[in-house]
Structure prediction request, 167 residues.
Amino acid sequence: MPARHLSRWRREAAAIREFGETECWSARKQSYVRFAGSEELDASLLMLAIDRYHDPRHPRIVSTVDAVERERELGRGPLLYRYMGADGLSGGEGLFMCCSFWLVEALALMGRREEAARMLDEVLALANDVGLYAEEIDPESRDFLGNFPQALVHLALISAAVALAQR
Prediction:
């Protein structure tokens, strides 16, 4: 990459971080939020720990992971919906399998390894007879929904398992 743009990229990165810290943080929820100015959570916020937006043990990351875990609308046991707010699409969604593996990975990175291992065991038990997962799962019947098999889910599983295996 050309170094001549480095100072501009650093300025833009700092501006983006400042926007996230001021406009995408909810003091009431003690969490980052789905979009600027909202109070909605989104399980993809777990990626903040995975992608090292801050250190996974940073207080804002820890409280965001905790907020996603306790948000009753998002969770059904070890499974999570990605989000619950309006998105302009018709129809309902199943529980998004990636979110469970993102939560396992975030917990492992935060040092909550026992909790992560228990959750991973619960989610692994939901695989089909050859160990594959679909994109989504029905919250009641546990039937697979959406794309099958879903590569993104399996990549999230591998990433979570690697994070849990590392010391």
Q: What stands out?
A: Strands lie at 25-26, 31-32, 75-76, 79-80, 95-96, 136-137, 144-145.
